[in-house]
Amino acid sequence: MILRNALLGIFLAMGVSLLMLAFLSWLAYDRISESNRRTQDVNHTYRVRLKNKDILNTVNTIETGERGYLLTKNEKYLQPYGEGRSILKGILQSMDLLVRDNPRQQQRVDSIKKEINRRLTLIEYNIERARNGYAPDTAKVSDGKNHMDNIRSLCKELDNDERQLLTYRSKLQKNADSNTNFYLFLLSAVSLAFLLVFFRLLYTELRRRIAFQNTLEEKLTDLERANAELEQFAYVASHDLQEPLRKMRAFSERLQMKEAGRLSEDSQSNLVKINQSAIRMQQLIDDLLTFSRMANLRERIFEEVNLNAVFRDVKEELQEVITQKNVTLISEVLPTVRGAEVQFFQLFNNLISNAIKYSKPHLPPVIEIDCQKVDGHEIPKIGDMQRNNIYHRISFKDNGIGFDPIYSEKIFVIFQRLHNRTEYEGTGIGLALCRRIVTNHNGFIIAEANAHREGSVFHVYLPT
User: Which residue ranges does the record assign to the Histidine kinase domain (predicted)?
Assistant: First the structure.
């Protein structure tokens, strides 16, 4: 839970940080775009002013060619005139495109074009008169000067407006650049801050995990030590504890045989009780050893196990009691699963033996085993990580005496019995051993019964 909360906190902080970075990135991008637009506006103003100068220079070139021809009658002076007219046409077209977003300047350009057309018409007229041998028309020359003065005046007005516009746009560009630099700095600073925060979080989490791993290693060491002690206990239990019990049984049986004629009925009864107690103690020790071995990881050598074969082996093992009690044992086709075959044999043996042992008097036991695949969310109290898994549900159903549903968990606790030993013999370990085996295989076991004591069902869930 702590690890999940830590990861949730990190992911939440990362999500908020990414949103903030995305917002700042968008803001910086918007400022950069604004700066680019302002730069384009400034460049546009420069281009208008340059085209305006090109108009004046080209008109002056045309006039120079005119004057040279009128003075010398040399056709070579008409070359700049012809080239200038062609160039001027392209310049005026470009100027139209540049000022189309400014109605006031567009009006000036239209006026400039009209004055230029009038001036060019007079130039053509003067050149034609000179070719025909006539002297220049003084009135037309004066008109031409007036048109040229008008062109210069209009171009100057246009340039003055563009200069003012350039001052305004340059100021906007400067502000945009300043804002862009600020937001880029802010984005870099925030990114660096988040990077430092994430580094700190990851560093803290790494240190916590290292500490957790060290603690886990210590726990594993303690567990290995406990397992070693448990193995030592198992050895002692299997040899040193059982040896006195074997002697008790041997001496009590010998005493019964040798002194049978001289012992009273009470003494003989006591010897029988001593012998039976020794047998129960030996059985209890054997069951404890079996239970402890199931917790030993080294015995979990998993392989493909055919549960149909396990069922047949258990049925053969219990054939004598099955025949004696007229047991009806029915099983569907069972799956093949991964696990320890000896543990599955123990599991089936315990569950079937329990069903036979807790059968109703004078009613032949009927035990049915069926299997089907189920989703993990159908298993009560299953963990969130296992809900999406698929399981084999193997159900052991009997018609025995059943049990009160309130004890559906208690019966799996070691040494917990629901009946007196005089009614039903046993050590109280069998079902606890079943749960340990199923847990070893990452599965679950659940007991079901009804209040009317009409049999019971044990559901074993094993991963597919």
Answer: 236-464
pTM: 0.50
54-67 residue pLDDT tens:
998 998 888 888 88
What is the 3-state composition of the chain as percent helix, strand, coil, each rounded to the nearest 5?
A: 70, 10, 20
Q: Rounded CA gap, 232 and 236, in Å?
A: 6
d(CA 406, CA 408): 6
269 CB neighbour count, 10 Å cutoff: 11
**What tens digit of pLDDT does each residue of 38-51 get?**
888 888 888 989 99
Judged by phi (left if over 0) then psi (alpha if -120 to 50, else beta), residue 402 lies in left
Count helices and strands in the chain by DSSP H and E runs: 10, 7
Average pLDDT for 225-245: 69
How far is the C-alpha of 439 from the C-alpha of 459, rounded, in Å? 13
Q: What's the whole-number mean pLDDT along residues 135-148?
A: 79
H/E stretch holding 228 reads helix 138-236
Please give the helix or strand (H or E) that residue 7 lies within, else none: helix 2-72
